[in-house]
Amino acid sequence: MNICANCGVELDEGLKNCPLCGKAPGEKINHPDEVGNSPSAIIQLQKKENMRYLWELFGIIAFSGITVCTIVDLLISKGLAWSLYSDISIAAAWIIITLFLFAGKRRLVIIPSLAVTILAALFLIDLITSGQNWFIKVGLPITIAVFAVTALISVLYRDARLKGLNIIAAALFALSGLCILTEIILDSYLFNNVVLRWSLITAVSVLPVALILIFYHYRLKKGNRLDSFFHV
Question: Which of 16, 21, 56, 165 has its CA 20 to 30 A from that of 120?
């Protein structure tokens, strides 16, 4: 079976021209005008335009939400009070949506950018919350831990030779550790004393499931990939 050199479409035997771009299977489009007018290039352009329209729509919704919350707060409270929290949250959500729309497949860009966005939002919320000062002791370490676990799972998935149930098991182990670390941070901030309760229950409950997944992956399924296991 031939494959078109321009758009990667698999061609049935006997086809002299690709039904998508109209070129012969081995003919490569080099002229910029031909590239821009080919059906595959038009489809890609439409996808980019649709993404831009979607981004503009989310921007309008976010700006409208910030405007409405601010005006209502000014009318009711005669100043800026609760609207600051909603405005910061809406702005952070819009930035996160923007990152997923334009950098969704670039992990080295989106993970640090998401971390910076969330940390900035938490810092601003802590700044306008009087008498709490929880960002340095709670918000910062928990956020860093969450993104560290996310980065670790992403690296494991990228470098694993067999991507199957072992990835889910590794994610469960990492989440168990994250739960324990979260309870340590919260107990230290709230009570100045660490007593592990719910995080240990969570870890003990997850451990057998993770071990079963590892056994099933390496012994029974011979390392089947996740997509073939779930038929996707």
Answer: 56
